[in-house]
Design brief:
353 residues, alpha+beta, Trna Endonuclease, Chain: A, domain 1, Yope Regulator, Chain: A, 2 domains, five-stranded antiparallel beta sheet, globular, disordered C terminus
């Protein structure tokens, strides 16, 4: 009997136990997640870059230390079982020890009391730290179809409550400006239109504190849409895998074929190496500059249409290649590090080869 209906559609089924995929949390799940942080980042509406795994914090060991698009510390604690008091305590120890801006606790199932604990922390901490509770699941199409991970966020920061606490701050009032609100409205509409044509690109939560909106993160960094200081709208691939040397290697490899990439994307691409910064950028700019607070409805629609087309064409031309190259560069760097570690061990033992 076919698993597909008359329209060729299958049925989404949940795999009961994630351990059917990852037998060991430390040996299987944590390394997999570190390689695929973009999947978690999309669920959280964040851009995450891995820094290290199995990080010593006091007498405990954190599963993954990462950073967000602003370079702030994100700690990720994994648990392939139900939540418990031990892991809740570890999350707090790691947050304090590493001065984390974001705490992510992943578990197979969140008990209500632990979910409420994270909700309570989000209500009572200031805007400098946020807590996410995430349930891990695995789905597949039909009884024998391909499988995929699912991250369901069951506890997240109450941004409205935190905004009220910070409403007296000049910096908060300044960042939550009418201009930033107009930017985020435009960017959100662009990504909603993109998502309708390419569902793999998820629509992140809008952040009215920023002049940019990041989406579709991966091992290379992330994509984003922004308005730069001179008023132009920019769509960019932001190359930041957490290491300057790997970032520049990735950029140089792509830039060497810049004419072909521009041809494939169908837009003028600007390759910006940014030698004085860790990251690099591949961008397209909308000319001329615009004032989003006074723009006409016709001009705004034309701008939105340009941004939608540019995101789709750049993503189609570059995304898969950037992911492949970034992973290859990281694997090569890891292999070299392992060889160097072996050489140090041999030298330290007094052996000669």
């Amino acid at each position: 009997m076919s698993e597909l209906d008359s329209k060729g559609l299958g049925r989404l089924q949940y795999v009961a136990d994630p351990r059917t995929i990852w037998q060991s949390e430390s040996e299987h799940f944590t390394p997999w997640l570190a390689e695929n942080l973009d999947v978690l980042g999309d669920a959280l509406g964040m851009t995450l870059s891995p820094i290290a795994t199995e990080v010593n914090v006091g007498q405990f060991r954190l599963d993954i230390k990462a950073e967000d698009e602003d370079g702030r510390v994100v700690i990720i604690e994994n648990q392939l079982e139900k939540t418990d008091h031990f892991h809740l305590g570890q999350c707090l120890v790691y947050a304090a020890g590493l001065e984390a801006a974001t705490v992510v606790w992943i578990a197979r199932h969140f008990r209500d009391d632990f979910r409420r604990a994270f909700d309570w922390l989000n209500e009572r901490t200031d805007q400098g730290v946020q807590f996410f509770g995430v349930e891990l699941g695995v789905v597949q199409i039909g009884a024998s179809g391909p499988r995929a991970p699912v991250f369901e966020v069951v506890s997240r920061p109450n941004e409205w409550a935190k905004g009220v606490k910070e409403s007296g701050s000049n910096s908060a009032a300044e960042s939550e400006s009418p201009l930033n609100a107009a930017r985020q409205d435009l960017f959100g509409e662009v990504l909603e239109a993109v998502n309708s044509e390419r569902p793999a690109i998820r629509v992140p939560a809008r952040n009215r504190n920023n002049s940019w909106l990041a989406f579709a993160s991966g091992p290379f960094g992330s994509w984003s849409i922004s308005q730069v200081n001179d008023g132009r709208i920019r769509v960019e691939a932001y190359l930041d895998c957490g290491d300057q040397g790997r970032n520049k290697e990735l950029f140089d490899g792509l830039e060497s074929s810049h004419q072909q990439w521009a041809l494939d994307a169908g837009v003028t691409l600007h390759f910006e190496r940014l030698d004085n910064r860790r990251a690099s950028r591949i961008a397209a700019y909308h000319e001329p500059a615009v004032d989003l607070l006074s723009i006409s409805s016709e001009a705004r629609e034309a701008l939105r249409a340009w941004a939608v087309a540019t995101v789709l064409s750049m993503h189609a031309a570059l995304d898969a290649e950037m992911r492949t190259r970034a992973k290859a560069i990281k694997n090569h760097a890891s292999a070299l590090g392992a060889v160097e570690a072996d050489e140090v061990t041999v030298e330290g033992s007094g052996l000669s080869i």
